[in-house]
Design goal:
The complex is a heterodimer of chains A (about 260) and B (about 375).
Chain A: E1 6-15, E2 18-28, E3 33-37, H1 44-52, E4 57-66, E5 69-70, H2 76-82, E6 84-87, E7 94-98, H3 99-110, H4 117-130, E8 141-142, H5 148-162, E9 166-170, H6 178-192, E10 201-205, H7 209-214, E11 219-224, E12 227-232, H8 235-243, H9 246-255
Parallel strand pairs in A: 3-10, 3-11, 6-9, 9-10
Antiparallel strand pairs in A: 1-2, 1-4, 4-5, 7-8, 11-12
Chain B: H1 4-16, E1 47-52, E2 58-61, H2 62-68, H3 70-77, H4 84-92, E3 95-101, E4 111-117, E5 123-131, E6 136-145, E7 150-159, E8 164-171, E9 178-187, E10 192-199, E11 204-213, E12 219-226, E13 233-242, E14 248-257, E15 262-271, E16 279-288, E17 294-303, E18 309-317, H5 321-328, H6 334-350, H7 356-370
Parallel strand pairs in B: 3-5, 4-6, 5-7, 6-8, 7-9, 8-10, 9-11, 10-12, 11-13, 12-14, 13-15, 14-16, 15-17, 16-18
Antiparallel strand pairs in B: 1-4, 2-3
Helix pairs in contact in B: 1-4, 2-3, 5-6, 6-7
Classes of the chains: A alpha/beta (about 260), B alpha/beta (about 375).
The complex binds adenosine-5'-triphosphate and magnesium ion.
Chain lengths: ~260, ~375
């Protein structure tokens, strides 16, 4: 019986020979929302990129399984097919590739042939409506000349279209105005309201509890210097907002 | 066409005129200056030219035009290109096309000039396009060649005051054919020329595209793409000549190569001392899709005036890993992602081609090359 969930065990990751993640243990269960917080440079994006299979990030030891499947041996596209989705902190721009064509190629790759072209279009318009996105987006080139907020909305549209089993949102909330922030919350709720996405597990990387007002986390993890130093409930996010990371650092140091 | 004396003179000029291209090197083995013309034994049956034009346009063979419109042809001939391969066409051509759009006439439907190389003896054709003052037209120059053929083509357009010409050519011939194409235009005061050009690979495709801005307010736009694959060679030269002040131009080139494809590009912008207040830009991007592919891009900005704007930008390299990873993270496999990114790379130039069917033809041809 394969074990469901996104399970990360003792994960060590290096970038250009420097160890950034020093043994991460973290599990996101199907249908649950985890938040990952930590100071700049602590390794949050490194974790996200390593799980997604970015070639610059080298896993030196440890394991990561998605519903029982070892994802670390898979090329990045196979990880997406296995059900992993990463909303990037800095999405790449691809001039000349139209949003509509790309969304279609991605959906076809992840869920081959499950929707006729007309059903796909209908689904696309419905999702765009939920996210308050203009149809003109579809004719634009992927992230090319997009504002920061537009890029994040497009990331959420892709999440909606691909309906992953586990979604990692790397600072999708950063730099967003209140309306855009709300639409990120809506994107998560809308996905969970669908048959395809009702069991989606989320790992939400953020600096701000304000996104967590829209999506209440079941669990909050604190990452400092490549290690998860504290895990708690939603209140932990508010403690970080009040006190910063210093008191947590002190507490961890005194425990050691 | 030309009489025997003129042909001899043209052939001498061909031999005497340097190609202006780089010398052969480690990648590029062909010497355009050593081309042996004794291989050409053209006869009237080697070349077929077909012209189709909407009402309101005079379109006929160049042979007929020499009888009926001798003065218009003679005036246009004075200004035609003087590059090495233009001389070659003049030395051998026995046929060609003539298109004349009268003053003020706006023609929406494209004019097609189809040139076919029927055999391996060498096909030669000359085209003359005259767009009179205030007129507007779109010309599509089509080429076709049987396997092993050589096609040598030269067209020149005179574009009168405030006239507009959009002209487009796609060289898509069998992989063992050779094409030498010269295209030139001379827009006059406030006239506008938009040239688009595609070389999709022949054994050898040599192209030379010239826009001579010859009146204040004249504007030239030149968008070209080329893509040698397998063992193909493409050699493109573009030249925009700002001959008077207050003229504007934009040149944009996109090239890619895969297999052992070899490409060379020489982009010349010339602004003479008297052409003050001119504005030119040259942008050229090259994409290398395999280790054996090579593209050599050389910009040449010859700017003698001081009160002008001249921009040059260039990139060369492989497909960006971040782009590939982004697409892979959404499930798109690497080979499909490469194809989509490479097609997207060409898209800004494809969009400049004037008809849906040309754009479709280009996308399909590029897709086939990327397969
Ligand atoms: N591609 C890379 N090349 C070099 N160094 C990197 C790379 N990616 C991450 N690092 C380094 O690894 C460390 C962790 O970076 P990471 O991006 O994971 O931090 P983060 O927690 O996401 O920070 P932020 O909150 O600023 O987004 C930093 O010191 C960073 O400089
Ligand atoms: Mg980060």
């Amino acid at each position: 019986m394969p074990q469901t969930g996104l399970h990360i065990h003792d994960l060590h990751v290096s970038v250009e020979g420097i160890e950034i993640l020093k043994g991460i243990d973290l599990s996101v269960e199907a249908g649950r929302v985890h938040a990952l917080m930590g100071p700049n440079g602590s390794g949050k994006s490194t974790l996200a990129n390593a799980l997604a299979g970015h070639p610059h990030y080298t896993v030196t030891s440890g394991t990561a399984t998605l519903d029982g499947e070892d994802i670390l041996t898979m090329p990045p596209d196979k990880r997406a097919k296995a059900g992993l989705f990463l909303s990037f902190q800095y999405p790449a721009a691809i001039p000349g590739v139209k949003v509509a064509n790309f969304l279609h190629a991605a959906r076809q790759a992840v869920r081959p042939g499950d929707l006729s072209p007309s059903k796909f279009r209908a689904m696309l318009f419905e999702k765009m409506d939920t996210l308050d996105m203009d149809a003109a987006f579809l004719g634009r080139y992927l992230n090319d000349g997009f504002s920061g907020g537009e890029k994040k909305r497009l990331e959420m549209l892709q999440m909606a279209v691909l309906a992953p089993r586990y979604a990692i949102l790397d600072e999708t909330d950063s730099g967003l105005d209140v309306d855009a922030l709300r639409s990120v919350g809506q994107a998560v709720h809308a996905l969970r309201a669908t048959e395809e996405g009702k069991n989606c597990g989320f790992l939400i990387i953020t600096h701000y509890p304000r996104i967590l007002a829209h999506i209440t986390p079941d669990v909050v993890h604190v990452l400092i210097d490549g290690r998860i130093v504290m895990t708690g409930g939603a209140d932990l996010a508010h403690r970080i907002e009040r006190e910063g990371y210093d008191t947590i650092r002190d507490e961890v140091a005194s425990r050691a | 066409m030309h009489n025997e004396t003129e042909r001899r003179a043209a052939l001498d000029a061909f031999v005497a005129t340097p190609s202006g291209r780089g010398r052969p090197n480690r990648y590029w083995k062909l010497d355009l200056d050593a081309l042996d013309v004794s291989a050409f034994t053209p006869n009237a049956a080697s070349t077929t030219v077909t012209i189709s034009a909407p009402n309101g346009v005079t379109a006929c063979s160049l042979e007929e035009a020499l009888d009926s419109f001798a003065d218009i042809v003679a005036r246009a001939q004075e200004h035609r290109g003087n590059g090495k391969f233009a001389h070659l066409t003049r030395a051998f051509a026995q046929t060609g096309a003539f298109v004349h759009v009268p003053a003020g006439r706006i023609i929406d439907e494209p004019i097609h000039i189809h040139t076919r190389a029927n055999d391996a003896d060498g096909a030669f054709a000359l085209t003359i396009i005259v767009i009179e003052a205030g007129a507007s037209a779109t010309v599509i120059e089509e080429f076709e060649a049987v396997p092993g053929a050589t096609l040598v083509y030269d067209s020149h357009a005179e574009v009168g005051e405030s006239a507009r010409l959009t002209a487009s050519a796609i060289a898509h011939v069998p992989a063992d054919a050779r094409v030498y194409v010269t295209r030139s235009a001379r827009p006059q005061r406030d006239a506008h020329v938009a040239f688009s050009h595609a070389d999709l690979g022949a054994a050898l495709a040599v192209a030379e595209i010239d826009i001579t801005l010859d009146g204040p307010g004249a504007n030239g736009e030149l968008d070209a793409l080329f893509f040698p694959s397998a063992k193909q060679h493409v050699d493109l030269l573009t030249r925009v000549d700002h001959r008077v002040g207050h003229t504007t131009s934009r040149t944009a080139i996109k090239s890619a190569a895969n297999g052992s494809g070899q490409g060379r590009y020489l982009g010349i912008i010339r602004i003479i001392a008297d052409a003050q207040g001119s504005d030119a830009s040259l942008r050229d991007d090259a994409l290398l899709l395999s280790r054996g592919a090579h593209i050599d891009s050389v910009p040449a900005l010859e700017i003698a005036a001081n009160d002008v704007k001249a921009f040059h930008g260039a990139t060369i390299g492989a497909i960006d890993e971040e782009q590939l990873f982004y697409m892979a993270s959404r499930g798109v496999p690497r080979d499909q992602a490469e194809k989509m990114i490479a097609l997207g790379f060409f898209e800004p130039v494809i969009e400049k081609f004037p008809t849906d069917s040309l754009r479709k033809q280009l996308r399909e041809a590029l897709e086939a090359k990327l397969a």
